[in-house]
């Protein structure tokens, strides 16, 4: 037996022991990519955690670690959490996918839930929200609000979730305004207010007047407030910027899901599941559309939202072509979840390439 | 390829703003390192300065007092580092890292009631005559006062290090603290002064971020700017004007690459987004080929009995 296998054995034994100790009161851990005060993505995951505490009171204990870098460091944090007796661990960013799977393999008795990824295991569930449904509504509003016919999109990393958001926004902006063009700027970070602000300024300098953001802080709205132009709350309502520059928002509501999964731990019937819910379930909410939006556009956006909720409309409905002009969806055809989950291409009309 | 969409004048104006936080933090760290101290807590001091400046600016309604408070806050935090490393002789690397963690935690604690609050806006200087020059006048001479202050600070540090007696003593302490001590200079006191100066500058850099560049308070909003400042000090081989160049280059390429993306330039985004780091390093390394290296006693513990 070499030293590595001894160590692995010891780690597994500790994990089992840790899980055993925690039997009386389940311990639920959360791993966040940004600070809980980012005002956006992480803030709302933490709101979900607080809702769990409020719902269950003393029956469960929750912990969190914030600003955990994606990649190898996450594996260390997850291992530490698993060793310290957590029963259920939510890993709340795409980049935690492989670390989650790796650590989960070492701790079969600890349950994991990974947000926005696509890899599962017996003790790893995945959950995500159909943000693209919200993007369809905000994209439509962006198309209505732009006077320059140029909208901008601040993109974080080239992963399917972000690309879906770009496509859904563009398709619906184009429905509202056939002349609209979209510039995409990739910042390669989820959270860096200065860089998000610089990207906003760069888009404004290029003549864009409505900006959609897929990063976690409120910096783009702060810049828009000073410089003029419109934007949207992202992941949180960001209502402090209403009625302008924030004209509406996409709100992530994780609380019901977190409560449901914690309940499953308490009941002892937790199983690995894949959840992908949209506006209809309440996981994605559309924030109030402000008075800065003309009444007709507001009514159109609300009708779109209601059609998505009732299921009569899917944001990716043909006819739609890919960027190179080849047919993706025929007239009336609806994209299947498999294609959406792995989306790596732009639709026709968006310029630039998807980075690798 | 359509480069006409990029207006170089607007670009220069944005890069001066984008580079100022790093510039301020880096010039402070340069003085610290010249005195032979390696303080890796720049990020922590910046973020502490960011919230101290923000809070005081909001409470008093005056960005001026905000910047003063940021400098004081950054300096106070750095004195914790000074006490640990100069009196208790702790390891500078470990203490500096701890300072960063401490600063991040302290700032989120202090900043809890300031989320979503708007700071008072800082007025821009309108320098008579110069700002009326067509084109460059608007670009170079219509910024907020801190942009000019940071450039003046570079000049002041350069003059101080090169021509003043105190600069000579500071360098002597950094190059050979035993010799400086033998000559009767108060090594520890000089170093504490340098550390406090570095803390104050980092604090100003942080406040520039929270009061001017992105006028809002968000936890962790420095997002690594302190580490960039540290790297620029090394790549600029401890020379003030090269710090200015490094910071403006880094800020400039960052802004440029975002503008190129927004303008839809057909260069793969991967290259564009790594370009600020790559170009800054390459340029500074090429310039520095044959020049001086780190202060000889950088990071060494000094005790008078040795």
Please provide a written account of the structure.
The complex is a heterodimer of chains A (356) and B (306). The model of chain A is unreliable at 9-22 (pLDDT under 50). The longest helix of chain A is centred in the first third of the chain and has 19 residues, at 3-21. Chain A has helices at 3-21, 41-56, 72-83, 97-106, 131-145, 160-176, 193-205, 219-227, 255-267, 295-310, 337-341, and strands spanning 27-31, 61-65, 88-91, 111-115, 124-129, 150-155, 181-186, 210-213, 230-235, 246-252, 274-277, 284-287, 320-321, 327-329. Chain A has two domains: 3-129, Response regulator (Rossmann fold); 131-251 and 284-341, Rossmann fold. Chain A is 41% helix and 19% strand. Chain A contains eleven helices and 14 strands. In chain A, helix 6 links the parallel strand 6 (150-155) and strand 7. Helices cover 69% and strands 0% of the residues of chain B. Chain B has twelve helices and no strands. The longest helix of chain B has 27 residues, at 8-34. The model of chain B has no long low-confidence stretch (mean pLDDT 88). Classes of the chains: A alpha/beta (356), B mainly alpha (306).
TL;DR?
The complex is a heterodimer of chains A (356) and B (306). Chain A is of the alpha/beta class. Chain A has eleven helices and 14 strands.
């Amino acid at each position: 037996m070499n030293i590595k296998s001894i160590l692995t054995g010891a780690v597994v034994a500790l994990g089992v022991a840790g899980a055993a100790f925690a039997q009386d009161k389940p311990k639920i851990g959360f791993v966040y990519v940004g600070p809980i005060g980012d005002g956006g993505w992480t803030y709302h995951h933490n709101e979900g955690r607080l809702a769990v505490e409020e719902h269950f009171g003393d029956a469960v204990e929750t912990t969190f670690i914030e600003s955990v870098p994606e990649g190898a460091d996450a594996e260390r944090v997850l291992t530490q959490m698993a060793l310290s007796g957590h029963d259920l661990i939510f890993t709340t960013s795409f980049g935690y996918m492989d670390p989650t799977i790796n650590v989960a393999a070492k701790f079969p008795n600890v349950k994991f839930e990974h947000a926005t990824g696509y890899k599962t295991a017996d003790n790893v569930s995945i959950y995500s929200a159909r943000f693209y449904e919200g993007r369809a509504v905000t994209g439509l509003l962006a198309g209505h609000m732009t006077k320059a016919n140029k909208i901008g999109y601040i993109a974080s990393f080239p992963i399917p979730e972000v690309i879906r958001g770009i496509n859904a926004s563009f398709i619906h902006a184009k429905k509202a305004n056939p002349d609209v063009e979209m510039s995409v700027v990739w910042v390669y970070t989820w959270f860096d207010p200065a860089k998000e602000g610089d990207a906003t300024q760069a888009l404004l300098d290029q003549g864009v007047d409505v900006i959609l953001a897929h990063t976690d802080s409120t910096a783009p709205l702060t810049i828009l407030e000073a410089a003029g132009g419109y934007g949207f709350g992202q992941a949180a309502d960001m209502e402090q910027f209403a009625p302008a520059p924030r004209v509406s928002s996409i709100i992530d509501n994780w609380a019901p899901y977190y409560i449901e999964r914690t309940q499953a731990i308490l009941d002892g019937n937790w199983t690995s599941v894949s959840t992908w819910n949209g506006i209809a379930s309440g996981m994605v909410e559309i924030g109030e559309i402000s008075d800065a939006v003309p009444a007709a556009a507001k009514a159109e956006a609300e009708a779109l939202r209601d059609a998505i909720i009732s299921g009569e409309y899917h944001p990716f409905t043909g006819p739609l072509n890919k960027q190179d002009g080849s047919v993706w969806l025929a007239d009336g055809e609806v994209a299947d979840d498999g294609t959406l989950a792995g989306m790596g291409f732009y639709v026709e009309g968006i310029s630039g390439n998807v980075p690798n | 390829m359509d480069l006409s969409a990029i207006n170089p004048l607007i670009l220069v104006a944005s890069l001066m703003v984008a580079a100022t936080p790093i510039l301020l933090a880096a010039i402070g760290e340069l003085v610290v390192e010249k005195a032979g101290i390696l303080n890796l807590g720049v990020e922590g001091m910046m973020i502490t300065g960011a919230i101290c400046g923000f809070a005081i600016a909001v409470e008093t309604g005056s960005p001026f007092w905000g910047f003063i408070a940021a400098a004081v806050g950054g300096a106070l935090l750095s004195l914790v580092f000074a006490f640990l490393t100069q009196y208790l002789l702790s390891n500078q690397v470990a203490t500096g890292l701890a300072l960063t963690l401490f600063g991040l935690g302290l700032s989120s604690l202090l900043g809890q009631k300031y989320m979503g609050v708007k700071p008072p806006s800082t007025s821009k200087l309108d320098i008579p005559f110069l700002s009326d020059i067509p084109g460059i006048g608007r670009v170079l001479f219509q910024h907020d006062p801190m942009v000019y202050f940071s450039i003046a600070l570079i000049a002041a540090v350069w003059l101080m290090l090169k021509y003043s007696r105190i600069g000579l003593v500071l360098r002597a302490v950094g190059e050979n603290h035993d010799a400086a001590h033998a000559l009767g200079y108060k090594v520890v006191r000089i170093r504490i002064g340098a550390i406090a100066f570095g803390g104050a500058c980092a604090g100003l850099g942080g406040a520039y971020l929270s009061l001017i560049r992105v006028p809002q308070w968000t936890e962790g909003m420095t997002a690594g700017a302190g580490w960039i400042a540290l790297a620029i000090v090394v790549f600029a081989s401890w020379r003030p004007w090269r710090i200015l160049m490094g910071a403006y280059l880094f800020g400039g390429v960052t802004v440029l690459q975002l503008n190129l993306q927004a303008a839809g330039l057909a260069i793969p985004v991967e290259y564009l987004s790594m370009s600020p780091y790559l170009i800054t390093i390459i340029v500074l390394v090429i310039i520095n080929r044959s020049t001086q290296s780190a202060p000889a006693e950088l990071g060494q513990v000094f005790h008078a009995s040795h």
